Amino acid sequence: MFDVVSFIPRAVMQSIPLLFGSIGETLTEKSGNLNLGIPGVMYVGGICGVIGAFFYEQSCGGAANMNGFLALAIPLLCCLLGSLVMGLIYCFLTVTLRANQNVTGLAMTTFGVGFGNFFGGSLIKISGLDVPSIALSATSGFFSRHLAIADRLGWFGKIFLSYGFLAYLAILIAFVSAYILRRTRVGLQLRAVGENPATADAAGINITRYKYLATCLGCMIAGLGGLYYVMDYACGIWSNDAFGDRGWLAIALVIFTIWRPNVSVWASILFGGLYILYLYIPTGSAGLAMKELYKMLPYLVTIIVLIISSMRNKRENQPPAGLGLAYFREDR
Amino acid sequence: MNKQKTPLMHISKRAALPWYISWGIRAAAIILALIVCAIITTALTGLNPLAVYGTMLEGAFGTPRKLWILGQNIAILLCISLALTPAFRMRFWNIGGEGQVLAGALATAACMILLGEKIPNWLLIIIMVGASIATGAIWGVIPAIFKAKWNTNETLFTLMMNYVATQLVAFFVIVWEVPKGSGKIGIIHQNSMAGWLPQIGSYKYLLNILIVAVICVLMYFYLNYTKHGYEISVVGESERTARYVGIKTERVIIRTMLLSGALCGVAGLLLVGGTDHTVTTTIAGGRGFTGVMVAWLAKFNPIFMIFASFLLVFLDRGAQEITTIFGLNQSFGDILTGVILFFIIGSEFFISYKLNFRKREKEVQENV
Predict the structure, then answer these.
(1) Helix, strand, coil share of chain B (percent; to 5)
(2) A62-81, pLDDT tens digit by residue?
(3) Nearest CA to CA, how far is A283 from chain B (Å)?
(4) With an 8 Å Cβ cutoff, are B180 and A285 in contact?
(5) What pLDDT does residue A85 have?
(6) Which residue, A34, A162, B233, B239, shows the most beta carbons closer than 10 Å to its own?
């Protein structure tokens, strides 16, 4: 019998990093920047949080001495700062220096994944501390703490209330950014920048400022996805390459939702479910091979959505028209 | 007096620079990047940066074996970059090199496993060549058809195709795994060497290097001296112009991606048939993405690509040496590569644009 009550929470846990990544990438793409560096940014966000938490835990010397607020604030701040720096690098290269976005993005991914794995593997050696491995279970405890009431509410508590605060933050950010994009002047201007920067420029919108703001904010949100993965999903244990291809899946999700963060909320749960569906399929040697095919599903579905939306050619379902192009005022 | 504020500087496009200045700017960027890398290395390891670079050179060129590995890695990376180039020249962002290489590699491995030791070796190798090229081409042409017909975004499409290919390989690895339950295929036909590409003399990697060198020269002529190459450039510069002069852009897009995918398939063939004799999901090792950067760094010129891929492979090999000697994590090389790429990417700005600083009041008045 398919166990829905245990399946849904796992799918949601799996979906939160994707959700963070896809909201960040949606905001970025709406400003006309195709940031293929998101996988790298998520790694950097995760590892920066780990570095912050690692030194804080070491300086406290035990979970008992840790201040709950600081234990949350330090990794969060480090994560946001790290992802912000990545965002600034990307913006400086593509907006100020007008470099090619695909190449810059791929370089960012190389750099970010390398940065994450390097510090994940060498943090102990560099810090010179005598600990066997990076296991931040105390910090993770603070991140994954959920309402005590959840345990008493049976299946309802398990499905809706059993997550750490970052999960709810992700959903909140998704709805807020969807509202800003669709219903506010700032959102309208941002979309204008992504659709046709020359027109937006003529209308007096500061292109550079919008691109910087949207991309840096997008990177910071995406970085939180990396932090959630390490601190909550992986229980504070960093292992190299464990984050895997979730960053690319987040980019796929952006297309799948046709650039709408509010749709991302349920779409990411769907993707998270597809990602772990194989765990619920009868195993055996044939099942083991089939599970690899099931992992293909999110990508296939994304391709199909991409094809259908380009075939139907409805104007509101298209990628931002200026996506991937650098804007130079004197160009025609 | 005019009270209007002039900005400190403004940017304008440059006319083409003489080649020695543009390459000088790039060289300066690389030197700056190496200095920054040295600072990072010293900060993290406390070592003398010159010693570290010495170790890197040692790691890349130290022994004949290391030299051959360097050559082999350059060959594969160059092959993938060359494959991507025609597509990039027509502004078709094929970042699906990874998937196309995997598709080619999978087809090669499939031929080796299913047909090996059953048919004569020469026939097997011919079938392998055909199958890998065909599969790579198919993998490349699927996004191209949709791009040509419905203008589907090719960057995102090819990106997704990578992961479809990865999972397909993962599926077949489990189907064919030897021994059962190990999760990998292992060396195919270790004893009979059926389907292994022939070795020239005692040099294991020479054949790969020679094949890629030939492809490189052919690609140079194809892009610069043939009608096809010209059509690709026109489509890349302006699709409307191309249509106006009667070039069938759909056909050019599909034809070029067939070629691009086919060459990626060749890279897969060389990897499986020539060196690894097995297939894994990581056999392309991110080189589909690195190839994008190589092609772009070389301004899509096949000859410059040799140097660009040399630079990236050298960094990678050198960094591996540092990590083994100094006991660091092997991802250190990726950080260095990233920093150097950032600098080179940034330097392109100074080649194509010019900064005009605000003139002093006096000069302005004199000019008036």
Answers:
(1) 75, 5, 25
(2) 666 677 778 888 889 999 99
(3) 13
(4) yes
(5) 94
(6) A34
Q: Distance between CA B135 and CA A211 in Å, rounded? A: 40
Q: A29, A310, A312, A331: best mutation site toward chain B, by most B Cβ within 10 Å?
A: A310
| Closest CA–CA distance from residue B224 to any residue of chain A (Å) | 23
* Contact assessment for residue A116 and residue A230, using Cβ atoms and an 8 Å cutoff: no
Residues B317 and B255 in one domain: yes
Q: Dihedral, CA atoms, B126, B128, B129, B132, nearest 10 degrees?
A: 160
The domain over range A4-316 is classified in CATH as 1.10.3470: yes
**What tens digit of pLDDT does each residue of B102-142 get?**
999 999 999 888 887 788 888 888 999 999 999 999 999 99
Beta-carbon contacts of residue B65 (< 8 Å; ≥ 6 apart)? none
Burial status of residue A133 (CB atoms within 10 A of its CB: 0-12, 13-18, 19 or more): exposed
Of all residues in chain A, the one with the smallest CA distance to B144 is A307
- Angstrom CA distances, B343 to A37, A52, B113, B337, B346, stand at 16, 28, 45, 10, 5
What's the structural domain count of chain B?
2
> In angstroms, rounded to a whole number, what is the distance separating the alpha carbons of residues B66 and B326?
18
The token duo for A157 is: 């508590």
CB-based contact B307:B143 (threshold 8 Å): no
B283 and B351 co-located in one domain: no
Q: Dihedral of CA A175/A180/A184/A189: which sign?
A: negative
Nearest chain A residue to B161 by CA distance is: A299
How distant is the Cα of B211 from the closest Cα of chain A, in angstroms?
27
Distance (Å) from the C-alpha of residue B198 to the closest C-alpha of chain A?
A: 33
Complex confidence, ipTM: 0.85
Q: Which domain holds residue B185?
A: 76-326
Of A154-158, A251-255, B76-80, B280-284, give the range with the top mean pLDDT: B76-80
Residue B65 belongs to some domain of the structure:
no
Between CA A90 and CA A37 the distance in angstroms is 8
pLDDT tier for residue A43 given thresholds of 50, 70 and 90: very high
Closest chain A residue to B40 measured between Cα atoms?
Answer: A115
- The pLDDT-based confidence of A252 (bands split at 50, 70, 90) is confident
Do residue B341 and residue A111 have CB atoms under 8 angstroms apart?
yes
Residues B321 and B337 in one domain: no
**Interface touch A307/B353, C-beta < 8 Å:** no
Which residue of chain A comes nearest to B340, CA vs CA? Answer: A107
